Amino acid sequence: MAISIPPPQWDDPEASTPGVAVLAGGCFWCTEAVYLALEGVKKVVSGYSGGAQATAHYRTVCSGTTGHAEAIEITFDPALLTYGRLLQVFFGVAHDPTQLNRQGNDVGTQYRSAIFACNPAQLQMAKNYVDELNAAKVFRQPIVTELTMLETFYPAEDYHQDYARRNPDQPYICAVALPKVEKLQQTFPQFLRKE
Question: Which EC number(s) are documented for this chain (predicted)?
């Protein structure tokens, strides 16, 4: 059963400037697939955030010891899509924000729920929204999403980019990514790309 996720009570225009957001919600293949389906998204890059450049490599990040989270950098058009809408999809479709250091069978700090704010307005808006959702008891458990300022985002290796679209028959994509896209289509059809 789908959870109804209300939009943030205040969608701060400053949070949508300069049209970049960095979110971590488990495997970046899955979150990338969700955000690429949204009207107003110009580009999504899979990568790593929260650790050092020297360890921003898939095999090393998979060890769970680097401090990185698998994240996506979303470039969007603020005239078509707000930061608040990105957060609404993040909490409502892209992942389960109540799971600590995991998403389903993907376990480790690299799969943690995190918002890496690109400016102070994004950080404040994310904090306010988490408080709103927790106060409304939208989820059965408290939200454990890490909220922090972005230090650096490191793009992942080329073969990770646009992975779900290029590998639609891969078993993990079929089992995890595609159901998230279907949930997006059912929950927020008004947000979908018109093409």
Answer: 1.8.4.11
Rounded CA gap, 25 and 19, in Å?
A: 19
What is the secondary structure of 30-81 as a DSSP string?
Answer: HHHHHHHTBTTEEEEEEEEESS-GGG-SHHHHTTT-SS-EEEEEEEE-TTT-
Q: Tokens for 136?
A: 């409304």
User: Active site residue: 27, 30, 118, 174, which one?
Assistant: 27
pLDDT in tens, 30-67: 999 999 999 999 999 999 999 999 999 999 999 999 99
Report pTM.
Answer: 0.96
Q: Are strands 41-49 and 102-103 parallel, antiparallel or unpaired?
A: unpaired
Question: What number of CA atoms fall less than 13 Å from residue 45's CA on the CB side?
Answer: 15
- Please give the Cα distance from 151 to 32 (Å, whole number): 20
CA atoms within 13 A on the CB side of 77: 9
Q: Which helix (H) or strand (E) holds 122?
A: helix 120-135
Residue ranges in the chain modelled with pLDDT below 70: 1-3
* Rama region for 59: left / alpha / beta (φ>0; ψ in -120 to 50; rest): alpha
Peptide bond before residue 18 is cis, with ω within 30 degrees of 0: yes
CA end-to-end distance (rounded Å), the chain: 28
